[in-house]
Amino acid sequence: MSAAHTAIGTSHLVEAESSKRDSAARSLPPQTLLEWLRMMVLIREFEVRTMQAYQDRKIGGFCHVYIGQEAVAVGCTAAVEHEDPIVTAYRDHGHALARGMDPKYCMAEMFGRIGGCAKGKGGSMHMFDRDNNLFGGHGIVGAQTPLGAGLAFGTKYIDEVINGGRSQRVTLCFLGDGALNQGALHEAMNLAGLLNLPVIFVVENNGYSMGTSIHRGTTMADEITSKAIGYGMMSAQIDGMDVMNVYDGMKEVVDEARATSRPAFVDIRTYRFKGHSMSDPRKYRTREEEEVYEDDGPIAKAREYLYDQKLLDEDGFKAMSKEVRGQVRESIKWADASPPPDVAEELYKDVYVERWGPYNGTSEPEMLGEPGGNGEG
Amino acid sequence: MANITLVQAINLALVQEMEKDDRVMILGEDVGLNGGVFRVTEGLFKRFGKDRVVDTPLAESGIIGTSIGLAMSGLRPVPEIQFEGFLGPAYDQICSHAARMRTRTRAAFTVPMTIRVPVGGGIHAPELHSDSPETIYAHQPGLKVVMPASPYDAKGLLISAIRDPDPVIFFEPKRIYRAFREEVPEDEYTVPIGKARTVCEGEELTIVSWGASVVQCMQAIERTDASIELVDLRTIYPLDMDAIEASVKKTGRCVIVHEAPKTSGFGSEIAAQIMERCFLHLEAPVQRVAGFDTIMPYYKLETEYLPDADRIEKAIEEIRAY
After folding, report:
1. What's the pLDDT tens digit per position in B245-280?
2. Which CATH code is given to the segment(s) B197-320?
3. Which residue in the set A126, A151, A162 is minimally distant from B104, CB to CB?
4. Of B50, B149, B297, B218, whose CA–CA distance to A161 is shortest?
5. Would you say domain A2-369 falls under CATH 3.40.50.970?
């Protein structure tokens, strides 16, 4: 039996054991922990139904689900403020939901319907939500990382150069371990280190770049935080299968980045339970390996903790799950009812700001702001 | 009015826009302390400081990607890429992100960024420092592509580009950076993107050109006694086809002149649209005078490659005799 990751063993590691003794997460109000569990259950249910909808051909294009990695998006977004920008790659449904996007907008986007967060023009890989400071959803592996540096630069420039204050923002820039080998990441990390940009590069290290294990594709595969040293930034390694642990590890890094206005690099060890995309035979790993992770997944872990602490019982969890199932069912109903974009109206819209030639101007920027276009009618 | 070069006109536009709007900032390789590889940003570092005129590492993908993040944050970055050949590493960011952001987000996020890029041959540079890749970017929906041919237009178009809500590739023909001076208003003004300029009016034939080639066209026109109308596109995309159509319907003959290789050069698109719009008005086939379908040669041969007044004059004679 092989595992995606060999044992985590470094002094940077924020281990579950140590965080038990001194855990910020464990001192949060019980309601917060229950909300995290609920969000993870929501993401899981959403993704299960996404897979079904894809198989039912309601979702076109390509589709990458987040099952198994829920604790990363939930723990990381909890560790930052709502105003802190977030940018991510193409496995982005979990980030959109964790950031606060209503699941119906996310589902309708994948269905290619006008009610989607981008009017069905972006699809699965391009979740954007301006109100929730989510800057995408990007399809080219690693190409979002200079954007992350730029977003951090933007917040800092606005706060300090324009408004003359001291910037308190940090930006979270998620990437997969596959992006570690893209040139854009190294340019972005160098720029961030050099220009003191408060961006945290969060590697969702699920051990596989599509079908290539990290050991087959990446140097220093067991110690990827060593890459941060070359760019003069702090780093941490975090067990990503435990949401409280993710929160604790990230909170420390976020606080430090905020205080110092410096970048950071975080290796969060996680595992995607499903294939890279919906058409992945998973020949590169064994069923046994998958079971090791599945048996001790992030939802079970958080649930067990809440049971132990008498903050939740089985009936409570059942009720939570039922409520979530209803919410996701509603999102599918809503997406189904939303019409596809009207070709004459939308084909040449949102390409340029103004009307000229075939181009049809742009939409109102508010999510689903236009009357009649939201599928609720 | 000031009698200044194209470089000075661009510098003036940058200064005025930075004075007016603190969201405007510059980043690129050597743009600060050293004033840029062609000294276009000379003096700006001292005037606006290192936070607004940012020296970056040699990392074009990083520069443009970071600029996109800045633009999505609500700022107006004006990154400089030192030579058009160095756009290659940034191509992914330009075409995968900048061009598509408005569509992909239903305009929730936009990229009001102006990428300044010296372009074209004629300065004894090596190949890879002398290309004319405007067609590549004109072919990407979501981008606007601008190329001035005079100091007056350079200033007015750059101000328009910086204020434009969409990403603009602002090509600066390096051959005419300092080739001549022109009276340019010291006050701010704009030249609209997407509008061609009629350099001189004529009745017998239309020449359409842009960038440094406009100067070669003017030299060729001076040599002939023909009544020639010269249209300087100023903006490659959006293409001002109405201006071309009006001129070609009047003259019935058209020569298109550009530096880029002939096959699939932007002249091909213009010729096709002339056929669609002006077929029954044409007295002769549209002619193209362009670079050759090869790698731009090293400096000893660059004058052979670039369309010059001799080649343009020959095309004029041929199309008149048709």
Report:
1. 999 999 999 999 999 999 999 999 999 999 999 999
2. 3.40.50.920
3. A126
4. B50
5. yes
